[in-house]
Amino acid sequence: MQPVEIKPSIYWIGVNDRHTEFFEGLWSIRNEGISYNSYLIMDEKKVIIDLCNELSIDELFEQLRRFINPAELDYIVINHMEPDHSGGLKALLNVAPHIKLLGTSRTKEMLESFYGITENIQVVTDGEELDLGRHKLKFLSTPFVHWPETMMTYEMTEKIIFSCDGFGGYGTLNGSIFDDKAQDLKKYEQHALRYFVNIVSSYSKPVKNAVAKLESLPIDVVAPSHGLVWRRDPLRIINLYKQWAEYAGTSGDPEVTLLYCSMYGSTEKLMEVVAQGIADVGVPVTIFNVSHAEMGDILPSLWIRRGVMIGAPTYEGGLFPHMSFVLDVAQRKHIFNKISAEFGSYGWGGGSLREYTERIQGLRWQHFDSFHDKGMPNADDLINGRKFGADFAKRILEG
């Protein structure tokens, strides 16, 4: 994509990444891709806000050179040191060795530890302002959204918040960078939810702190480092992040995430009737086969839904390994205070219930009930499994 003017003399000069399969080496983006949003302010002082990863820097330079020789830049604002934003920094310094680097005190430390950079660094403090000529920047400390050095930059003249990972989302920018021109805004919102839960949800309290910090500022545009630039309804994405952060430590909406895996079909047969029982009561249920589903898709469902139904066969005296891994990641992401139940099949001796019980203690999940079948489920097992699902759904509606 070519550069896009956001406001007078302020430009998006980012790049789309349609090739990386796993963001942070973990979260699949092979279908939706991601954008690296970099921004340029052309004024008496010329500023670039955030960069991109090392592999995309040549493309970003092409964007930049449509306006200016990179050597003529005065400042680079480093809102966040993660390499998807700072990976192109040394390449920029090779062509603009005198550019001044602006960031927090923690950013200064990380510049040395990541890249060996110790010169031309200007530490900015919370609330500090920088006059560029017509435009003026204000720096806002927002630690742990989602690293300790993170800040946001507010352009005071045009009322733009450059929020870096805050209010960001997965998904390449397909033809337009703006929310009002997005062909499928709901899809971008789902990408943003998935991004929030995968990347930021462990730091929900700092997210809420950041949102509170912005409440006193007039905001016309939200310009994150990934995903859409929000100008028609800039508060929409801020309020969504606030809403998603509020789920932290709560049970969530009266819906069910059903996670299952099956070795030879027994547990899958039970899963079908358990899901049927949940639906009988009118409770929405979202089903994931954890042996095939992407972890990045499972976590948002767990984050916002109250009920978790676990279906897994016993494997060597414990939970099936794929299920065990999901619960481990859920604990790392602080998906706490859910209501759960467990079912499954076993060949000769159980054991999955024991490990499941241990796991949910760490997750602070409330156990409702368990249902197990030895061998292949018969007709009575299927009837009882459906009732088991219905009883669980009723419990979810109770709150």
Compile the SSE list and pairings.
Blueprint lengths: L3 E4 L2 E3 L2 E3 L4 E2 L3 E2 L5 E3 L2 E3 L5 E3 L7 H8 L10 E3 L5 H4 L2 H7 L4 E4 L1 H11 L5 E3 L5 E3 L4 E6 L9 E5 L4 E5 L20 H16 L3 H11 L6 E4 L9 H13 L6 E8 L5 H15 L4 E5 L5 H10 E7 L2 E2 L2 E2 L1 H12 L6 E8 L5 H12 L2 E9 L4 H20 L1
Parallel strand pairs: 8-9, 9-10, 10-11, 15-16, 17-18, 17-19, 19-22, 22-23
Antiparallel strand pairs: 1-2, 2-7, 3-6, 4-5, 7-8, 12-13, 13-14, 14-15, 20-21
Helix pairs in contact: 5-7, 5-9, 6-7, 8-12, 10-11
Describe the structure.
By secondary structure, this protein is of the alpha/beta class. It has two domains: 4-246, Ribonuclease Z/Hydroxyacylglutathione hydrolase-like (Metallo-beta-lactamase, Chain A), CATH 3.60.15.10; 254-398, 3-Layer(aba) Sandwich (Rossmann fold), CATH 3.40.50.360. Helix content is 35%, strand content 24%. The chain contains twelve helices and 23 strands. The protein has helices spanning 57-64, 83-86, 89-95, 105-115, 185-200, 204-214, 234-246, 266-280, 295-304, 321-332, 352-363, 379-398, and strands spanning 4-7, 10-12, 15-17, 22-23, 27-28, 34-36, 39-41, 47-49, 75-77, 100-103, 121-123, 129-131, 136-141, 151-155, 160-164, 221-224, 253-260, 285-289, 305-311, 314-315, 318-319, 339-346, 366-374. The strands form six sheets. It has a seven-stranded mixed beta sheet with strand order 1-2-7-8-9-10-11. A five-stranded mixed beta sheet has the order 12-13-14-15-16, with helices on one face. β14 (151-155) and β15 form a beta hairpin. α5 (185-200) crosses α7 (234-246) and α5 (185-200) crosses α9 (295-304). The longest helix is centred in the last third of the chain and has 20 residues, at 379-398. The mean pLDDT is 95.
